[in-house]
Design brief:
- With about 575 residues, the protein is an alpha/beta fold.
- The strands form two sheets. The chain has a six-stranded parallel beta sheet with strand order 7-6-5-8-9-10. The protein has a four-stranded antiparallel beta sheet with strand order 2-3-1-4.
- Helix 2 packs antiparallel against helix 3 and helix 20 packs parallel to helix 22.
Length: about 575
């Protein structure tokens, strides 16, 4: 059997795909169970965080294992296999070990060096142990990953290179202001009471917010988190719990809201956020400028198609207002459908269609144009001729985009859930600043890495080599155990034969003979078994187990039964 990991993360897939592939707690359980039920896998664990979904398994066939694990991921994520496959990565044996150890140290995190991933790995192992899908390999691998991660954080300055995703998100909201200064005096609402939400609540409390309100679907968990925050010795921030249906009202009082739940749908719709800002500020909430609005009332005023909020009207534009124009200029607000700005970048065939439309236009349109249709047709014809000659349309002056001044935000939202808790349409609401996983991924791409990262990479490499050696040595253990069991059986048979031939021996004499025979057998086996374990730990040492079985004519079923007994012990071992 060999270790295989198949997964996708923020490094391999866009946030939109990660969001759709996110696994609920029940889906993670079912995925692990279905994996060990599949033919190629003997044990499995699922590591699912806000920016990664990984399936670890001990498989007996590489290609069959990759196919089966990929199919299972697609089935349980709800994303089609054809669509998911381009974003999947595969690691095998030592590369799989290296990957998990790197993840545990924070080297593969969106924020390099963050330590929260250790808790998520621990939860993943505990879940696999509870489900009895973790055998010897998964247990040893994940426990060693936790030790490697702790070593990296204690022996290096990797903590200086990164922070938790919560802290990084708050930094993005603060836009250059120290988080402690920015949050001081603000009221915070935390939606959810899981590990990420608890970390957010504790971070906000230590930073000095005026109040923390915790909302959760399970009231008891919200009350427990609020009580922990209130009783914490390192903070004096008041905290209280509220039910989820109180969130809209609490949002009108909050300055900062952090959401991270396991919900599969939106927790905060754009309408809810818009209403909270409107009720808080006592003024209409508008969208950011630059988005086309469709009139939906008799008076021609527009309402946002998702929030229902009345936006500030833009200056009039002639885009898509004249029937029959062959150009689709919906993405170019402010362009004239008659003048040169309209045709910049168009191909020659489209220009000819536009020229014919201008020449054949109605009298009313000609009267509203800044110049006659003949002049427009002549201009467009000249541009079409240029396009035919040089292969493209020369750039023309375009009007400056109309930009309405956006007010300073009064509500700051941090969405750390995957899939998202907060409607992405909130990005367009004035008076609101939203930071979500997608914007964090963009911001983290330019985040500086500390010099300690190289030291952590060396630790990972050393630990991978040590783990591989221990794993290879462990593979020969069942063979050594079977050899010693065979020797013990031979000793027992010979002692029994001696008892029959020398019935006059007393108990002291029999005991001395028995100890002597055992010592002789142990001494004869000691050097070969120690040496074979050392040789098996080296690369390519797997063949020594086969050699030992052949030389001593060991029963393969005896060796296999020892392996099954050890694996059964590991799988039945509960969480530590």
């Amino acid at each position: 059997m060999s270790l295989l990991v198949v997964g996708l993360s923020h490094r391999s897939a866009p946030v939109s795909v990660l969001e759709r592939a996110a696994l609920s707690a029940d889906a993670q359980i079912k995925l692990a169970q279905d994996t060990v039920a599949a033919e190629p896998a003997g044990e499995a664990a699922v590591l699912a965080t806000c920016n990664r979904i990984e399936l670890y398994a001990d498989v007996d066939k590489f290609h069959a294992g990759v196919a089966e694990l990929s199919t299972l991921l697609a089935q349980h994520s709800g994303v089609g296999l054809d669509e998911l496959t381009p974003y999947l990565y595969v690691h095998y044996e030592d590369r799989a070990v290296h990957h998990l150890f790197s993840v545990a140290c924070g080297l593969d995190s969106m924020v390099v060096g963050e330590g929260q991933i250790l808790g998520q790995i621990k939860d993943s192992l505990a879940r696999a142990q509870e489900l009895h899908t973790a055998g010897r390999l998964i247990n040893d691998l994940f426990q060693q990953a936790l030790r490697v991660g702790k070593r990296a954080h204690s022996e290096t300055g990797i903590d200086r290179a990164g922070q938790s995703l919560v802290t990084f998100g708050l930094q993005q909201l603060a836009v250059g202001t120290p988080v402690e200064d920015w949050v001081r005096g603000k009221r915070a609402l935390v939606i959810g009471a899981g590990s990420m939400s608890s970390l957010a609540a504790a971070t906000l409390a230590r930073a000095g917010v005026a109040e923390v309100v915790v909302a959760n679907r399970t009231q008891e968990r919200a009350e427990r988190l609020a009580r922990i925050l209130t009783e914490a010795e390192d903070t004096d921030v008041p905290a209280r719990a509220v039910p989820m249906d109180a969130v809209p009202a609490e949002l009108t009082r909050a300055d900062i809201a952090v959401s991270c739940t396991g919900a599969t749908g939106l927790v905060l719709a754009a309408e809810t956020v818009a209403a909270a800002v409107r009720d808080r500020a006592g003024a209409p909430v508008t969208e950011a400028a630059g988005r086309l609005r469709t009139p939906d009332r008799a008076d021609g005023k527009a309402a946002d198609d998702r929030t229902g909020v009345r936006p500030t009207p833009l200056p009039p534009t002639s885009v898509a207002t004249e029937d029959g124009c062959p150009l689709d200029l919906s993405a170019a607000p402010g362009f004239s459908v008659m003048g040169e700005a309209a045709v910049a970048g168009m191909d020659a065939a489209t220009l000819e269609q536009h020229a014919a439309w201008v020449v054949g236009g109605t009298t009313a349109r000609r009267e509203t144009a800044r110049r006659g249709p003949e002049a427009d047709a002549e201009l467009i014809g000249a541009l079409a001729a240029t396009a035919s000659a040089v292969g493209r349309i020369p750039e023309r002056r375009k009007p400056e985009p109309v930009a309405a001044e956006r007010p300073e935000p009064v509500l700051f939202l941090l969405d750390l859930a995957m899939p998202r808790d907060i409607d992405a349409a909130v990005h367009r609401l004035a008076g609101v600043r939203l930071v979500d996983i997608e914007s964090l991924a963009e911001a983290s791409a330019d985040a500086p890495m500390a010099a300690d990262v190289d030291q952590v990479r060396r630790i990972v490499s050393d630990e991978v080599a040590a783990f591989g050696a221990a794993l290879r040595a462990a593979h020969i253990t069942p063979t050594v155990v079977a050899l010693r069991a065979m020797a013990a059986d031979v000793v027992a048979a010979e002692i029994a034969r001696l008892d029959g031939r020398l019935p006059g021996l007393d108990d002291k004499q029999r005991g001395e003979i028995r100890q002597t025979v055992h010592r002789v057998v142990d001494k004869l086996l000691h050097a070969p078994t120690v040496r074979v374990k050392q040789l098996a730990a080296e690369p390519g040492g797997a063949g020594y187990a086969d050699a030992l079985r052949t030389l001593f004519d060991l029963d393969p079923e005896t060796v296999a039964s020892v392996s099954r007994a050890e694996d059964s012990t590991e799988k039945n071992r509960g969480p530590r």
